[in-house]
Write a structure and sequence with these properties.
The complex is a heterodimer. Chain A contains 17 helices and 10 strands. Chain A is α/β, with parallel strands linked by helices. Chain A starts with a helix and ends with a helix. Chain B has one domain: Orthogonal Bundle (Cytochrome-c3 Hydrogenase, chain B). The longest helix of chain B is centred in the middle third of the chain and has 32 residues. The chains are: A alpha/beta, B alpha+beta. The complex binds iron/sulfur cluster (SF4) (2 copies). One iron/sulfur cluster binds next to helix 12 and helix 13 of chain A.
Amino acid sequence: MLSRREFIKACLSMAAGLSVPALSRSLMAEAAGMFSHKPVVIYLEAVTCTGDLISLLNARDPDIGRFIREDIDLRYQTTLMVAEGTPAVNYMYQSAEEHWGEYILIIEGAIPVRDDGIFGVIGEAENGPLTALRAVRDLAPGAKYILPFGVCACFGGQYATPPNPSEVRGVWAVLDQRDKGKVVNVSGCPGHPDWLIGTLTHLMVYGMPELDAHRRPKVFFGRTVHDLCPRRRLFEQGIFASQPGESGCLYKIGCKGPVAGCDVPLRQWNTYYHWQWPIGCNVPCIACTEPGYPTAMMPFYQHLPDINVFGTHAASRTIAKTVGLGTGAAIAGHFAASLITRRVQKNYRKLQEPLPPLPAEPTPTADLAFGFEAGPDLGEPDLVVEQAQPPVTAMPRKEFKSPLARQIQEKWKEK
Amino acid sequence: MAKILIGPVTRENTPMAVEVSLANKVISDAKIMGRHMRGFEYMLAGLVPSDAPYFTERICGICSTAHTYASCLALEDATTHDLTKNGVLIRNIIFLGDLLQNHLRHFYLLSVPDYVHLAEEPPWLPRYTFRDRLPSAVTKRITANYFKAFEVSRDAHTLSANFGGRTPHTWSIQPGGATVQPTGEKIMRALANLRLVKEFVTGAYREDLLALVEAYPEYSEYGSRPHNYISFGLVRDPDKPSEPFLPGGAVLEGQKEAVEVTAISESIEHSWYSAAKEVEEGPFYHRSPEPDRQKPGAYSFIKAVRYKGKACEGGPIARAVLHGGYQGGNAVWNRHLARQWEAERAVELMERWINQLQENQPSYVQWESPEAGKGQGLFDAMRGPLGHWVEIAGGKIKNYTVVTPSVWNMGTRVGAENLSPLEEALIGTPIEDVENPVEIGRVVRSFDPCTACAVHVITPTRKLEPFRIV
Ligand code: SF4
Ligand code: SF4
């Protein structure tokens, strides 16, 4: 069987021809001897658009139908299950009781807490309407692991946008203290099927994966889009798109790649073709994996006011720390101070209970030529992934017209 | 009088509840209840207009491209804006790929389990006790196709993603067109996906549906309702982007007519809201009413929408009546057959359109948000008419209203008699065994219901009591 290290390495690298679901399935099959039965999964839909489930249905190689039939024991999932009404709710509770302490609870969608959660009624229990809040609190103590799937379930996300009329929260925020330790956030809007299946496999076969400050598995969320972006070279050269649809770096029209912890540039969506992600479609990344999304990331198309292109690392790291955006070290400077402080401080703090404190700041290994720091330490020293783009000292330089690009050029000259 | 309450009605996008009353084992009254809320329109007020397409697509994960498309139409309507042919073609292809995905998943993953004993383990168990009337060889075939449908519907979604960059919640549909270039690689991949989907849609999907129609003949009658339909028109004409490719229209008691937006009215009489004005007329540039959970006689967060006072049904069957020369009934199987018919038409259109893409022509023209203006985007989503109305003031969104297909199909009643289409369709359906009321779900699911989009417009103002149904 693959060692944990090899599995992580495979997930990190997305080597050609490798699919996380395929890898996961063969691993789970190999590990089947370790369990007396298939892992029991209860998948709750709280207040959701069902986008995460639809995204999961798009998993490939193999398809999710086979995964559901052969690899897990799916007891409750309202979009797929055959039972309906109170019998279905009863079956969910009965399954939880039978497998108390060992089932995996996946939750999609945010949890309304206003007036005891009555704004999110998800079914009819024997004793009255079942709210999402009650279902989560009933099922959490018996779960072995809790996987909020999608940014709404992780951090409130889309439906926590002010004025947040039903007062929705992420799952972590509504759990009892003793259950919080079981949470592994699989974020994204929607979540990527590989992230869920890969995390599930890690939990089943190797136990708890290494988590980042927002309790997301580092293997999928530990590096930023900016770190892995194929347009990073253009960024460094100051070749920017001036409108959506252009093939330059999209930083100036609002790309949030520098604060988005997410490995989609390697993984892509749907079929893993190289254009199946926002930047491949020439629109900015909106950082849908981050707490505070979407409020902190809007306007999606607004260029983040750039005050001082380089030399703002310290400042941006402080900002990241203050508002809980990004993993600090991952921010390659210059994220808009004004955007974050103005919008986020007003709205973000209201939205989100802070997650556990961010870890101590890693010592930056600065790439002196460009002032960028290496990706965050993933904990397994031999796994540090190659920088997506090598330094581009040999690239030709030209005179730029845009003020931002000129600033960058000035900096170069200074060095 | 006996009552049956089913909550959640599973196998639909975001569970709702349905309560039926029985008289002599026949449904005499039905209420569709949307019981959770998000409040999208209030969140949208104050945002920058260009954020609206990404924001509104998160209303629904199974028809996200319909919302982005409608939102872009509303924004483009607020200014004068030209689109390129490539831009319209790409948007249409993205939407139709999503439509195919929806129709395939709706039939196999959501509807088939109502009629066929698929597998003897969860999540296909537990289930109601009912007799699977198909010969065992056919049951076996449909079961295999059920699992195949996971793959094929995914390929249909991939077809969209070839141009949209991702499904659900696509990237490249933007006000101004589509931000991807139709390169040869994308076109070839899309055609390859389309071939797989076509084979399945014209083969297995049709055969399996016909097998069910034959085995369960009573559903060619159950679920019928008056012949009132509405459509806002399917996708846009690549040569005339301001017009729908298949024009919209209304059918009132069999008579076709063009849709006048001013004849659409939205009522909150039986919904948990209160406002000075219980009925608003289109176009909908106004703020939503305040919710009132204690309101006597109300039973759902979903409002009621009527055309010239009549409950009109949207979706594939409405489009088949308007464009396919269809004149038959509208029972459960008719709705399913119309959906399958539409899937085949969608494949034909896609074949034509993918081949019309021009590799080196632009597909996007930058769109500038106006300082002030109003725009409406009328569009047919997979399951019926969808309207987005935006009012912009000071460069920000002032009001944003969304009237979704589910409000048309499964809203509340107006007065005591004027029921919503789904409520009308349920009435008269006999229930053979009240312990296993499998008939209710079969009728409900023929509509392809989706509450994700139906219950998005609420701002609670007062403390609510947890409620119960007797
Ligand atoms: S995270 Fe995105 S896809 Fe998931 S429920 Fe929220 S809006 Fe829908
Ligand atoms: S700013 Fe965005 S587009 Fe530019 S390099 Fe970073 S992630 Fe890529």
